[in-house]
Amino acid sequence: MQLDERIISVGKSLDRLVRRLDDLGYEFYERAEAFSGPAPDTEAAIGRIEREIGELPVAIKLFWRLVGSVNFIGDHPEWDGGEYPDPIVVFPPVYALSELDEFLSDRERRLAHNFPYLVPIAPDPLHKQNVSGGMWYNLSVPAVADDPPLNDESHRMSFVSYLELAVRWGGFPGLEQYPDHSYPLDALRGGPAGER
Length: 196
Description:
The protein has helices at residues 3-23, 42-52, 58-66, 93-105, 107-112, 159-168, 185-189, and strands at residues 27-28, 70-71, 74-75, 89-90, 118-122, 137-140. The model has no long low-confidence stretch (mean pLDDT 93). The protein has a two-stranded antiparallel sheet. The chain starts with a helix and ends in a 7-residue tail after the last helix. The chain is mainly alpha-helical.
């Protein structure tokens, strides 16, 4: 399957997951950000980053253009057993622009300390639960591949492979660490009581 087809498939799955989570009473912390679609300034953001830093990975450009952004951070009062479920998040381009501004304002010092510009993708699992954590998930620029590794994420897989893993876990890939969790994965995946 081509990269754009994989991303379109992930986008459709995320849309279904948002509706299922709503049906199951999940409380998104920012419902408007759960699955908001492509941002109107996407092309301008991509153009600016590529002029200032270098080529963005094809995968994030396709995601921003075809899907937009996603944010499953939230809670359900009856679901437990997963202390850090790592709800899926992919920031919209505005986060990448904010990081670009910070990088450009301090480029020499950051490069001297081996901290190049990175596209922020998502908070780490601890920050997603309001606990002080580590480096946010990110992608390297200039691009090292069309679908590069997702840096600072424990699975050490490509960006799109991580998205597909998150979908397989109902939007919560951190649950694989918690075999006794009570999240209704069958319903989220579209099994019993989850056909929508």
